[in-house]
Specification:
The protein is an alpha/beta fold. The chain has two domains: 120 residues, Response regulator (Rossmann fold, 3-Layer(aba) Sandwich); 96 residues, Winged helix-like DNA-binding domain superfamily/Winged helix DNA-binding domain (Arc Repressor Mutant, subunit A). The protein has eight helices and eleven strands.
Length: 232
Amino acid sequence: MTKGATILIVDDDPEIREIVHILLYRKGFIVREAPDADRALIMLKEPVDLIILDIMMPGRSGLELCTEIRKAATTPILFLSAKTQDRDKAESFLRGGDDYLVKPFSSIELVSRVHALLRRCLIYQKKPDTVVKNVIKTRELHVDFDTGAVFLRGQKIILTSIEYQVLQLLLQNRKKIFSAREIYEHVWQEPFLPLSNNTVMVHIKNLRKKLEEDLGHPQYIRTAWGKGYYIE
């Protein structure tokens, strides 16, 4: 269940923090607040389940904070920003963000995004009771779907919950080509919109950065031009 999860709101606007805090608190979440990146990093020494992050803040921006967080944690990050350009959304995903919501936002949409991110994270982290191993190996990539552990050339690599679910979809359906629409609707479980294609592309790019030695000639996640993505 997602109720009772701890959420950190990072925004320099106290009114936004208060609105989001009250909204999420009423839905049963534990809510913490930070006015800037430095305070957020201090508060993140204690575990949280999700981070709601503004982009434009004094000092370090939300994008810089996201990059710093992704060095050590896969905590879901929802960007909440007044920036509406496609390039801003793409940059947030490249930095490791999981979702993006434009201000002003509706309370229903915010809560639904929060629930969706937390559900995906729980699926990623869930440990089954069975001891049967469910491991898929391809070349030097080994993924244990019982534990969620991903190893490349013997080294454990850290994926966000969305990156993991994209990889899982492709690995468990080897040689099948998935269009951006199919990936988006399967992983995000939301209707495919015009901007959804860019969202998928950016997450595929992030995943390739972690898996591929040569991004110009990917060996794991391949592109079927005009059709989609697949793993042999």
